[in-house]
Amino acid sequence: MASSLSRSLLRRLARPHKAFYRSIASSAVDEKISAVGYHVNGGPSFMRGTVFWEPNKPLTVEEFHMPRPKSGEVLIRTKACGVCHSDLHVMKGELPFASPCVVGHEITGEVVDHGAHTDSGIIKRFPVGSHVVGAFIMPCGNCFFCVKGQEDLCEAFFAFNRAKGTLYDGETRLFLRSNGKPVYMYSMGGLAEYCVVPANALAVLPESLPYTESAILGCAVFTAYGALRHAAEMRAGDAVAVIGVGGVGSSCLQIARAFGASEVIAVDIQDDKLHNAKMLGATHTVNAMKEDAVDKIKEITGGMGVDVAIEALGKPLTFMQCTKAVRDGGKAVMIGLAATSAVAEIDITRLVRRQIKIIGSYGARARQDLPQIVKLAQSGIFNLKNTVSRKCKFEEANQAYEDLDHGKIVGRAVVEIM
Ligand SMILES: [Zn+2]
Ligand SMILES: [Zn+2]
């Protein structure tokens, strides 16, 4: 997979960039044609992006016309993009998504341009040259849920981005250089040299935080924060268990610790992940291959079960374990995505009599939560360095997803783009 990706990249790099600095001669014609000659502050008119074509086929690196932001949108020179399981679900055909598309939804980068007629407040907040981090849920800001402050349920995000692969005017910002064909965007289409992001999804990244490690703030940490802050409404002193301690799960451990958890129990089947969990502040680790996870969690909590259990794998078995690991009246929070056909079982009578709460949670609220998350990282309460376990080059993205699929990535892999 990796070698075919690098071959395709080499082919593309070898191609002469004749029209690279073509002038904006066609600007009088329509919007799409004028995009051909669009430059970013005198820079390139084209960029490279990683394209998913169809399930179980390797990603290829393709050239695109430079994407153009519209009103309220920001063009970002992508610096880093995290390698997340949700992309993998799309790449394996487990979660249906419009294709071809550019995957990658966990980014940091530098602001290079704003769409025409963008509000001056946005330009002031994210001036050209500022460092930013992007949340994978990009709230429209105006729908029923956004108005209520529940940006994690934004109607436009699900109706346009998740259902159609576009931004909120129903169009993508990505067009292939070779034939002008549209390519869809999974969130902002972050595995590319540039990406267009609605300003509502951005937060300023202080210069003290590195681009590469900070990429995980926009999905892994964002998801962990949303699960503990909003779904679990976690309180100091709560006992927390996290089932599955990869990228998102290990972020949950750290957020639970930051919120004052008394016990933080990490459950996984890989000793290297459990070892890493200990380094990130887990008070106990349980290898579910060697012992019964639920029994062990009960034992650690004096027979009670935890106040909050988080399931970060999206598997029917661990879903059930999660509901069994909580104390009476406790909260089982589900954050692991599964194939759309997956269903789980539940012990009905216990759920009813013992008032077990099963809560789904997806991401967090970009405008209120992302700045808080950045502060946790800036203060060092959240350790970014130990969560990112691998850094790779743009050309190695395919391999990174393959390794993620095979459980070979202990924490999170991040692709360094430019
Ligand atoms: Zn993600
Ligand atoms: Zn909305």
From TrEMBL:
Q: Where is the Enoyl reductase (ER) domain positioned along the sequence? A: 54-415
Is Electron transport one of the keywords UniProt gives this record?
Answer: no
What does the subunit comment say?
Answer: Homodimer.
Question: What gene is behind this protein?
Answer: CAD8
Q: Which CDD domains match?
A: Zn_ADH10
Its domain of life reads Eukaryota
Q: Which family does it belong to?
A: Belongs to the zinc-containing alcohol dehydrogenase family.
Q: Which cofactor does it need?
A: Zn(2+)
Supply the InterPro entries for this chain.
ADH-like_C, ADH-like_N, ER, GroES-like_sf, NAD(P)-bd_dom_sf
Give this protein's Gene Ontology molecular function annotations: metal ion binding; oxidoreductase activity
Name of the protein: Cinnamyl alcohol dehydrogenase 8
Species classification: Eukaryota, Viridiplantae, Streptophyta, Embryophyta, Tracheophyta
Q: Which SMART domains match?
A: PKS_ER
Q: Which Pfam families match?
A: ADH_N, ADH_zinc_N
Q: Keywords, A to Z?
A: Metal-binding, NAD, Oxidoreductase, Zinc
